[in-house]
Amino acid sequence: MTSLFAYLDPGSGSMILQIIAGGLAAVAVTAKLYWNRLLRFLHIKKDEPEATQPEAGSPADSA
Amino acid sequence: MPTPAETSASTGLEPGSFRDPESRVFYADERVYRALSADGLKDFEALEQSGLLGDDRIVATERAQNGAALRGLLVHEPAGVLQHERIPFVSYPYEWTFSMLKDAALVQLDLLLAALDKDLVLKDSTPYNVQFRGARPVFVDVGSFERLREGEPWIGYRQFCMLYLYPLMLQALKGVDFHPWLRGSIDGITPAQMRGVLSFRDRFRKGVFTNVFLHAKLEQRYADRGGEVKQEVKRAGFKKELLVANVRKMRKVVGRLEWSPPEGVWTAYGERNSYTDDDARRKDDFVREVATSRSWDLVWDIGCNNGRYSRIAAEGAGTVVAVDADQGPVELLYRDLRTEGNEQILPLTMNLADPSPGLGWRGLERRPLAERGRPDLVLALALVHHVAISANVPVKEFVDWLASLGSALVIEFPTREDPMVQKLLAPKRDGLHPDYELEYFERVLGEAFEVERSERLESGTRVLYFARPKRG
How far apart are CA B98 and CA B394, in angstroms? Predict the structure, then answer.
């Protein structure tokens, strides 16, 4: 089990929506999402490589 | 511990269960089994440990003997096999009424919340994972439970919108039946399609702006950026609390969606109890006598209307499938059956002149009505004139179709003089439907069936028949 998601394509717009629309619970996550984008836009932070490698600590791998 | 028969496993594959690579449903000896991959088995073990498996909203499931012989079911050798309780009759969302789809949606969401509480999640959100035992929704896809992985949003959110939320909104907000759309599209309604259907005013209704308009907009903007967004979401630290909050919000939105049949339907439905004339009593007796003459496993009541005869048939049957083309009375019947906790009568809405076909990949994923279980007895009461006159199906065609089911039959023939038949004939040219005559009907019925008994009701314009299929 190497990929993050299951067989179903969650849809990229649908994922972003869940962050924006999460209300109070989502404020911190939304802020972080756009903060990361800003840093990348200002070239302060580099893009991390596409992680198709195993997720560290995920139960699928440790089991 | 039950053992699936080795030889029949490959032939008994459920053709609608192949999308999830971790589990596959198959049939052997009239039983339902599920083969699990190694990962699927670990997920199942987590489900067992959570204690959720015993929940009565989830199909009864036990481990079956390891099916090492079941080669070819999954990419790798199956690591485990489960056996499921069999649902008496399979039905699909495009045959359910509004409240049935809504109740299935609520079961889906409630189980997801219960799963999240145990650090599990449902990997998809399709109504095809729910079946009805009578008026009770049962979640049948045990393979949908998996261990929650950190940083993961609600994977099934988009699918939930497309197959549950939008169809329900279509009915509740626009008064448009969702059935043709779900039947025409196995994946449901896309966010962009749903946006196209709604008006400016609709944006102000609860849940519409976010789940339809914003959703469609974001989908457009982020098209083809799947991998990138996946990383972004993860890095931003998507937490379980956020997932739970999103599911709770969705539950509120779905819970508020309401639809009710037009007033005329309520009036006609209510007449069930005040219907006391002699004809009705004799018709009741006729049906009851046949229904209780032996124990019928599966009865179809086609053209069930308010379910009066489905209820009588249920006195002598295992399961009754009550079908009507009009969603209204079936919706009201479902509500009553739900209140009663009825697990015997399954109400469905479908036009018998255009019944559910085989759909999906190779036309096999969703099966036609007759392939989901042949009835032992069919009730076709106050139906033949609608099929023959309104839908222009020749009388002989209809009788031959009934004979092809191979079941016993109770059929009512309203003669040309009957007021209802007159009403259907009125807009038509004189002399049309020459095959709609009592004598001709009796001839074709006698050719296809052995007629055991018949009775002309007091009013003289309605005749009842009990017939058995011809042998050989």
Answer: 32
| Residue of B112, B163, B232 for testing the chain A interface, max A β-carbons within 10 Å | B232
Cβ atoms of residues B59 and B85 within 8 Å: yes
Contacts of B392 (CB under 8 A, 6+ apart): none
Q: Which stretches within chain A are classed as H helix?
A: 12-20, 27-41, 59-62
Query: Nearest by CB to B214, which of A7, A17, A28?
Result: A17
**Contacting B residues, span 171-230, partner chain A, CB-CB under 8 Å:** 191, 210-211, 214-223, 225-230
Please tell me whether residue B240 adopts helix, strand or coil conformation. Answer: helix
ipTM of this complex: 0.77
3-state secondary structure of B290: helix
Residue contact A5–B230, C-beta within 8 A: yes
What residues have CB less than 8 Å from A11, skipping those under 6 apart?
B157, B158, B219, B226
User: B193-247, pLDDT tens digit by residue?
Assistant: 999 999 999 999 999 999 999 999 999 998 887 778 877 887 777 888 889 999 9
* Nearest residue to B212 (alpha-carbon basis) of B162, B153, B154, B152: B162
pTM, 2 dp: 0.90
The verdict on a CB contact (< 8 Å) between B155 and A8 is: yes
State the smallest CA–CA distance between residue B100 and chain A in angstroms: 25
CA dist B182 and B170 (Å) reads 11
